[in-house]
Amino acid sequence: MIYIGIVVAMIAIGSLDGFLSGTNKPAGDATVAPARLDDAARRGALVYAQRCSDCHGLDLVGSEHGPALLGARFRTLDDAGWTAAMLQGAPARGRHPAMAPVDGLDPADAARIVAYARAMQAANPL
To answer: Where is the Cytochrome c domain (predicted)?
Structure first.
């Protein structure tokens, strides 16, 4: 069981490393710039890759399962709103389904994910 966890972590880190170095590009013509990450944001990037990227995309540009986190709507949402969505869930919006609370996510990791997303937003102005 521990080996499965190690393999999953290695895949997530490898994918994230490829993205942050610029070798993984989002689909289409969009290009997402990597961000300089402090320790909290770096940890948040790892948690994000494991817990959020299936729906919101490794590059935060979204998918059919979840909205892009680099857009205007999430730039104006305060950190408490982001944290509440992760810990308590969020209603359906537009073409995206409701978001269930992220099972087992603690408030400290939620704050780290927000730090990562904010760093990526800063590195990718609208």
So the answer is: 39-121
